[in-house]
Amino acid sequence: MSDANYTRRTINKEVVPSEHLPEGERALRVYLPPGYNQVVSYPVIYCQDGEDFFNFGRIATQVQKMILDDEMEPVLVVGVDVDKSKRTAEYTPDGDRHEAYVRFFVEEMMPYVASRYTVRGEADQILLAGDSLGGTVSLHIALAYPRRFRYVLSMSGAYYPASRRLAAASDERLDWLKAYMIVGLQETAFETDTGTFDFVALNRDMKAVLEKRGAQLHYEEKDGKHQWGFWQRELPAALAWFAREALG
After folding, report:
1. What PANTHER family is this protein classified in (predicted)?
2. Domain span at residue 61?
């Protein structure tokens, strides 16, 4: 199949009104699969850092290729944009905008998407995806709404102490949760806006927390740095995991 078929994609831009976010709205980008039909319902992948997932992760192109190559059922991909200056406040569970963002995501953004597109709402037909702090907030959205979501993709999740404490705070079993976790072996001293962290250790610690609570994990450590070059390269394998586990 020619490269033009892979890159000739349909991506719509949307603006979701919000009562939870101080700005009163948030931008989205929505990838539609080839042959999108409003009488058919589709699984959906929700991405944090939407602009980065589309521009640097090339998720629309990668999903398009997998669909056309019969490696994945047709899905929608929704990228939720973020103001980088407010990203930490929204994505960390102890951030002062976190609760508002989580409520916006589930109570406003998802119903808006469902009102505009024919997406499936079952827990096993949704993937929450994110890199770094995006992986963190994806996990915590799933934890905040037990059994509302089943699948989480976390690439180099920024699981700082507050995140791990919150994940370990309950004795409730997480046997309904499946997560794909990957981290780069060259991420042992990554500088963030809140300090320098060993992301390999952070992910190993969160893996132990989640497994103790019964979550089912696909966990890998590979050569890679804390950057989109690594995550873009690993994204097809993560998408294939979702296709295999959830979509059959």
Report:
1. ENTEROCHELIN ESTERASE-RELATED, IRON(III) ENTEROBACTIN ESTERASE
2. 3-247
